[in-house]
Structure formats: C-alpha cells, structure tokens
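User: I'm preparing a small set of examples for a lab meeting where we compare how different chains pack in three dimensions. I only have the primary sequence for this one, and I'd like the structure in token form so I can line it up with the others. Please keep the answer compact; I'll paste it straight into my notes.
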Amino acid sequence: MTKKIHPATPAQATSHSDAGLAVSNAPQMPVSTSLTRDAIQTEARRWLGFPFRHQGRSAEGIDCVGLLVMIARAFELPHDDVTGYTRRAKGMGFLEHFHAHLTEIAPARIAPGDVLVFVEALYPCHTGILSDRLGVPHLIHAHGARGRVIEEPYLGEWPGKLRFAFRFPQLLEAR
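Assistant: Understood. Below is the structure token output for the 175-residue chain.
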C-alpha cells in the first residue's frame, strides 16, 4: 500500500530518554532554513533506542523505512509512506520510492546526513542515515536483529553491502 504524503502540518519532535518518552510541540523552522546535514542527523538520533517493529511508524516501533518516513515528516518533506512490504528483498522495487523524492549520488560521495541503501544477497533491502561521531562515520538505522534504532560505526559488513546512496534534494549545503 502506498500513500502519498505531502507537507500539511508540522510534525511533533519526539525524543527518547532513559526516563521514558518525551514529546515536544516546539514549532519547527521552515524547510528552507532548517534542512542541514546536522539537522538530519539530529532528527535521526531522536529515534535512537526506540524499538524495532516491521512497518512501524511511531514511538511504539519503527523499521528502517519508517525511520526515513519520520525524518521526512519532521521536515515536512514530500514522501511516500509505503507499507505492505516484506522483510526480505524481492527485486529492485525497494528503490522506486527513493528515486521519487531523493537525489541519487555515487556511493563514493556519501557524507553525513545522506541516505544509504544496502543489499542482502542481490537486492536492496535496508536503509539508514550516515552520521558522524567525532570525525568517524557511523550509521543510524533500525536494526531488526538488535531490536531497536541504533547508531554504530560504519564499518564491518556495512561498506561492503552499500550499493546505492541518496541525498535529500532540499538539503542546504554549507557555502
């Protein structure tokens, strides 16, 4: 099932802490002044520790696609919210929605705040946000096996599974 989502109302900023969930209704800056690499990483980090749930789109549970959907909602960006997909890749269809709203870039050009797409066997099936921690590349993603959204060093299996990379076209680059 695909539902086209276009900016309508400001999203609520949600954060997670050891004491529980905290919800803020703070107004968000317009996209034209707020979509920076740091802002994308900050929004992705708000989801750290939240539980993994296949096709989840809330604090009750979220998956890798849901994380991107929630980031897009937070910045009021146009996006497709696709549900009804399986946990195993079946062809290249996973990429259709990335191409619809993001700009594909060469994997060699990735930078913090970019969207990374990974393959399992032959097909793309997982995604996350590249982040930076003290100059070291990290990956923020909803990890099914670990049962939650995590930020881990971008090394080990991840660079070898990277096949596609995308950038938010609304991203404000430092000039």
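A couple of notes for your slides: The domain at 2-87+94-167 is CATH 3.90.1720.10 (endopeptidase fold (from Nostoc punctiforme)). The chain has one domain: 2-87+94-167.

User: Perfect, thanks.
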